[in-house]
Structures are given as C-alpha cells and as structure tokens.
Write a structure and sequence with these properties.
One of its GO terms (molecular function) is oxidoreductase activity, acting on CH-OH group of donors. It holds the Pfam family GMC_oxred_C. InterPro entries: GMC_OxRtase_C. This is Glucose-methanol-choline oxidoreductase C-terminal domain-containing protein. It is a single chain. By secondary structure, this protein is of the alpha+beta class. The protein has helices spanning 4-7, 68-92; strands at residues 18-21, 35-38, 46-48, 59-61. It has a domain at 15-82. The strands form 2 sheets. A two-stranded antiparallel ribbon has the order 1-2. Strands 3-4 form a two-stranded antiparallel ribbon. It starts with a helix and ends in a 12-residue tail after the last helix. 1% of the residues are buried.
C-alpha cells in the first residue's frame, strides 16, 4: 500500500517530468502518434512591455529549452516515445518514423 508521502503530489519526486499525449487518429488511417510535452520545465522566459502604449504588443521571449535539464528531458521524451516502434510495431507492421530536423 502506498504511503501518504507516495501520494503527495506537492513532492517533486512524485511528479512526472514529461507527459505523452496520444492525439486523435486521422479518420480512415491506422496511425500511432504522440505529443510530448515537458511538465516541469526549468527554463524561464520573459514578457516585457515594448512601449508605454497599454494596447501595444508585448516583447515575449519564451526561452524554451535554455537549460540542459529541459533539453535532456525533451530528448529522453522523444526516445521513450520511439520505443513502441522499436520494440513492438516494427516487428509486425510496416512502420515509418519521421526524422524531423526541428531540433537542429
């Protein structure tokens, strides 16, 4: 039986670093796809005023993946979502994997 500490979601050890979300499949297609997102990023961005105009667009710097931890978690996430292809689907189905260069 889990202890109260095991169920305490305020403790960082009990919270995931990544979340894998399977999106809806496309009608008429057999597919398997995942949306990977960091849950506890350590990178921080900024939102600043661009001018004294209150209706003006702000300056937004998202600063995604600026820490080594965030990049490591993201790469681990990608590798873990490839596992079904490598271990199961690739054995019996014709499976393709898009090698996007968006991180380069």
């Amino acid at each position: 039986m889990p202890s109260r500490a095991d169920e305490d979601t305020s403790l960082s050890a009990n919270n995931p670093d990544i979340e894998v979300i399977p999106p809806d499949r496309m009608a008429g297609h057999i597919s398997c796809s995942f949306l990977c997102t960091p849950v506890r990023p350590t990178s921080t961005g900024t939102v600043r005023l661009a001018s004294s105009d209150p209706l003006g667009e702000p300056l937004i710097d998202l600063n995604y993946f600026s820490t080594e931890y965030d990049m490591d978690m993201f790469l681990r996430d990608i590798l873990s979502t490839r596992r079904p292809k490598d271990e199961t689907l690739g054995r019996s189905w014709s499976v393709s994997f898009s090698e996007s260069d968006f991180l380069k």
